[in-house]
Amino acid sequence: xxxxxxxxxxxxxxxxxxxxxxxxxxxxxxxxxxxxxxxxxxxxxxxxxxxxxxxxxxxxxxxxxxxxxxxxxxxxxxxxxxxxxxxxxxxxxxxxxxxxxxxxxxxxxxxxxxxxxxxxxxxxxxxxxxxxxxxxxxxxxxxxxxxxxxxxxxxxxxxxxxxxxxxxxxxxxxxxxxxxxxxxxxxxxxxxxxxxxxxxxxxxxxxxxxxxxxxxxxxxxxxxxxxxxxxxxxxxxxxxxxxxxxxxxxxxxxxxxxxxxxxxxxxxxxxxxxxxxxxxxxxxxxxxxxxxxxxxxxxxxxxxxxxxxxxxxxxxxxxxxxxxxxxxxxxxxxxxxxxxxxxxxxxxxxxxxxxxxxxxxxxxxxxxxxxxxxxxxxxxxxxxxxxxxxxxxxxxxxxxxxxxxxxxxxxxxxxxxxxxxxxxxxxxxxxxxxxxxxxxxxxxxxxxxxxxxxxxxxxxxxx
Length: 463
Fold this sequence. Notes:
Layout: E1 2-5, H1 11-22, H2 35-46, E2 52-55, H3 61-74, E3 80-87, H4 91-99, E4 123-130, E5 139-147, H5 160-173, E6 182-184, H6 191-205, E7 212-213, H7 216-219, H8 226-240, E8 242-243, E9 263-264, E10 270-277, E11 281-288, E12 307-313, H9 326-330, H10 334-350, E13 357-361, H11 367-380, H12 387-391, H13 397-406, E14 411-415, H14 421-434, E15 440-449, E16 452-461
Parallel strand pairs: 1-2, 1-3, 6-7, 6-10, 13-14, 13-15
Antiparallel strand pairs: 3-4, 5-11, 8-9, 10-11, 12-16, 15-16
Helix pairs in contact: 3-8, 5-6, 10-13
C-alpha cells in the first residue's frame, strides 16, 4: 500500500495558473490540484502498489498515514506499506497562517514564555512498514487518534484531544507513562498550542514527565508532512542514542514544560511522537527500539454486513436552522451546510446523539471556500485576508466541525482520494467496528461541483 498525507496537494501549481483557469486557459494543470492526484503521481512514479490513498487531516496528516498503514497491516490487508507525508510551501497557506496572526518573523521558540508563533517549512518523509521485518530500524508499539472537538484552529485549555491520543497510544502499547524515554512534541511555538500541549503532557505523565522537545525550530512547521518527518527524527534518536534539542528555549512558561536542550549517549527504548491538526485532529504514536509484537488480525480489512446502516441525502437547506443558528449559517459555504445537515439528519434517523468515530471521504474538500481565499489573495495581496475562509478551507474541516457540534472526542480522519474517497472511509469504518474499537461510526461523503453539492452521510453500527 502507498498512503500519503497532504493538505496543500498541488496548490503551488494552482496559484500559478488560477487566473488562467478563470479564462479557460492551461486547464491541464488543474489535474494536479487535488490531494489524491498528487499522491497518484508519486505512486505512478514509484509503481506497483496494490492500494493507494491520501489522508488529509491538516497538520496530523502524515502521522495518520502511518497509523493507517499500521491498521492495514494489523488487519491483514497488506504485508508492506509506504507511509508518510509531503507538503510544499504555497502562498495559500503562508497567507492563511498570517491571517490567523500566528506567524513569527523571528526564529520560532517552542515552549518559551516569549513564543510568538510558528515558522513555516516544507518537506517530505516516508517510511516502509512491514508485517514481519527482518532488519527493522524501529517498531510501532502503539498509536492513538482522537479529536479535541473544541475549535477549528484553537486547542482546548487542557488539551483534551492530545491527552486522549497519547493515552490511547500508551494503552495500546501496554506501557506505563514512566516507560517513555522521550516525547517529540507537536510544539508549534504558538501561544495556544504550547500551553495546551504542556498541560496535556502533565496530565498524562504527572510526576514522571520524560525529556520533551519540539524539533520545529530546526525544520519549521512542515504542516501535513510534520508527523512523518518528526517520526523519522524519533527513529534516528532511538537508533543513535540522543535526545533532540529544543532550539531557542530560554524562559519557562508558567504551568508549562521545561524542554530538553538535547543530550548524547542516551539509551532510548520508547519515543512518543505527537502531531496535532486544525479541527482538533490529534494523533500520537509510540516507537520502540526493540522488537515489539502487536497482534495481527485474521480476515479481511472490511466486513460486508452491518446493522443500522443509514443513508441520508440533502433535500433542502431550509432544514438547517434546526441545527445551526442563522448567524453561523451565513458564515458557511454550501458544502459545509450540506454536510452538517446530512450528518445530523442521519444521526437523528439512527437515534444516535454522538458517534464513537467520524470518518470522512471527500475528493476536493472545501473547494468553494478555497477558491474564495485565492480570490481574496489576488484582490488584497497579503492584507485584509479572511481568517474564516482559511480556517474552513482544509479537507478535514467538515469532519472536525461535526465532531465539535456533537462533542465527539473519538477517532476522526479524512480520506481524500478522488472517487475512491468514500470507499476508503467505509473500509476504515467497518474495520473499526469489526475490531471492536467502535460501535457506531458516522461516515460522510461530501463534495461539490459547479452545479451543486453532494452530501451523503451513513451511520454504521453493530447492535
